[in-house]
């Protein structure tokens, strides 16, 4: 959707300009768009009839540059994809959540330290986003809603950071990972409430 939407926004446009714009948005970090795949994606969209190659130019020994525009079929596809993302809630895979589900496998001290480190990384990212919001790059050269996107990312990061610090404190307090009265279930032989799995006594 990102590449199709940018061509629609900037058309007629070269792949180089699409790539440059996406990189200026840091889209490779949040939109699953890799800079090296943009030219391939443009050709694929053209093969599918969603884009049309308008002109192809070559200057000297430089690679040929193709200018693209969106076809009527591409307009329809873009609007379908756009509205699907606006009206649906799509949860993205989160590797950290997968790791956190095995919290008891880490010593408490390490788990708390890792959460505080994550909070520090998030804090640095928030400061960077806040700086971007105050920069001329956002305020004077981008549409207003780009700044709103930065506000969304900062708000999410702030909530994540606060959660990390709160859970680190609970872990350090020694609170049990099991509800009161609940015992370790069958098949949970590696569970010992924060630390490496116990070793079997062979004596």
From TrEMBL:
> Which InterPro entries does the entry mention?
Tscrpt_reg_PadR_N (IPR005149), WH-like_DNA-bd_sf (IPR036388), WH_DNA-bd_sf (IPR036390)
Any Pfam family matching the protein: PadR
Instruction: Tell me which residues make up the Transcription regulator PadR N-terminal domain.
Output: 3-79
* Name by which UniProt lists this protein: Transcriptional regulator, PadR family
**Superkingdom assignment:** Bacteria
């Amino acid at each position: 959707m990102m590449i199709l939407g940018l061509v629609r926004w900037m058309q007629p446009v070269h792949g180089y300009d699409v790539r440059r714009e996406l990189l200026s948005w840091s889209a490779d970090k949040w939109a699953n768009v890799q800079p090296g795949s943009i030219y391939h994606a443009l050709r694929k969209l053209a093969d599918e009839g969603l884009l049309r190659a308008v002109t192809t130019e070559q200057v000297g020994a430089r690679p040929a540059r193709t200018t693209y525009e969106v076809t009527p079929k591409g307009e329809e596809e873009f609007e379908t994809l756009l509205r699907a993302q606006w009206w649906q809630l799509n949860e993205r895979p989160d590797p950290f959540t997968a790791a956190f589900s095995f919290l008891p496998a880490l010593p408490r001290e390490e788990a708390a330290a890792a959460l505080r480190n994550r909070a520090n990384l998030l804090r640095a990212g928030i400061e960077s986003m806040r700086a971007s919001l105050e920069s001329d790059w956002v305020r004077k050269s981008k549409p207003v809603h780009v700044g709103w996107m930065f506000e969304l990312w900062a708000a999410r990061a702030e909530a994540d950071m606060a959660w990390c610090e709160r859970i680190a404190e609970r872990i350090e307090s020694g609170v049990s990972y099991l509800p009161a009265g609940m015992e370790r279930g069958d098949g949970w032989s590696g569970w010992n409430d924060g630390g490496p799995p116990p070793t079997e006594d062979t004596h």
